[in-house]
């Protein structure tokens, strides 16, 4: 049984007509006329960790991107955990559609067929004539050493020769899969990934490229970053987040760090962000040196947010028990720059946008219509926003989910609903303008409460599939041995 999808069908029809029209208009020009696509995705980077929002954080190259393009100030991830967010990015669908609700473990996942029946954006771009490459983290399925469908070039991690922690080493020997072949590299791994990406950019080809470069910075461990960067942040790190904050939920791991320990972790986290910014600069230099900068759409974003001491926590959605859908876990940077005919420069946009929106955006820019059935995810193309148009309405609510928890927010009030089973649930309300914010539940006026409940239910009724719904996640294959809802299915304070 599939839940009814009236909203999804209406949106799908609009998107498909748009894509078909765009594809038809460009068909005579061929792939050579299409823009190159470069998507840079960081790992665990909160929106707050950009120099555009805090002058103590040095990200001049990302600021340069924003100046020649668009900075979206209200972007979120559809879920605050790695594999689920990346699966949503590559499919354009919610976890309750594609079925990946948590991070996937190579060793203790119950399945290896994740996303087997999904259409990946890499496949669609390849069909349109793009050379498609992935460099760095994949983690949207298990067996990540195997190149995923649609990719012509694959450089990701190889857990056959090392533990899962190896891929997160910022320096040292890291094991990779190079188009399926086992290799290793010793050094600063971000530099290595940039080098290989730059090689792909420099290849002489009549086909446009679509590159997904996925760094592991600033993901844990908070160690192994160049000291030239860490030492730069030690004087300011202790003032970034005061020690002693708290969450209404229990931390998933020990958080009783001293002020010095917290400051050192923050210094490493921020050093990793600046290391990323240096890689952005190197990639922009490569594009400029090869004459491809003015024909390339560049996207900078992250898979989800991160808490580095905020609420006294370290991590994202799985930093607490039960799992959380805090703004710090969901809010992501999103900057897009590109050819002048596609991107109006110098914009700061306040629409509610999602990582999911990049799926229909990249497809529209590639002139590609989704094959077979209409696109049925909740993503909306950002193309008109990139061009500087001012729609009367874009999106009224943010929606997100994580396992048996789902959320609606208008950035003033937030509702998080935890399902105990397919029908029973507990609701928690948050006033995001109150000093305690998401630390304690506070209910809104009755009329608003009823409206938000109605919109939350309507959204998920439109998109969830019964056999993949977060409401029934306990009956689905296990993602890993640490799923936060396994020991707290009965969510209560």
Explained architecture:
This protein has 493 residues and is of the alpha/beta class. The chain has helices at residues 6-27, 60-67, 82-91, 95-98, 121-127, 189-202, 227-237, 259-289, 327-330, 358-366, 383-386, 446-463, and strands spanning 36-42, 69-72, 75-76, 131-136, 153-157, 171-178, 181-188, 209-214, 250-251, 296-302, 307-308, 314-315, 320-321, 334-337, 347-349, 353-354, 398-402, 405-409, 413-419, 425-431. It has a 10-stranded mixed beta sheet, sandwiched between helices. It has a 4-stranded antiparallel beta sheet with strand order 17-18-19-20, with helices on one face. The model is unreliable at 1-29 and 489-493 (pLDDT under 50).
Looking at this protein, list some descriptive labels:
493 residues; alpha/beta; ten-stranded mixed beta sheet; 12 helices; globular; disordered N terminus; disordered C terminus
Outline the secondary-structure elements.
Elements: H1 6-27, E1 36-42, H2 60-67, E2 69-72, E3 75-76, H3 82-91, H4 95-98, H5 121-127, E4 131-136, E5 153-157, E6 171-178, E7 181-188, H6 189-202, E8 209-214, H7 227-237, E9 250-251, H8 259-289, E10 296-302, E11 307-308, E12 314-315, E13 320-321, H9 327-330, E14 334-337, E15 347-349, E16 353-354, H10 358-366, H11 383-386, E17 398-402, E18 405-409, E19 413-419, E20 425-431, H12 446-463
Parallel strand pairs: 1-8, 1-10, 2-15, 3-16, 4-5, 4-8
Antiparallel strand pairs: 2-14, 5-6, 6-7, 9-13, 10-14, 11-12, 17-18, 18-19, 19-20
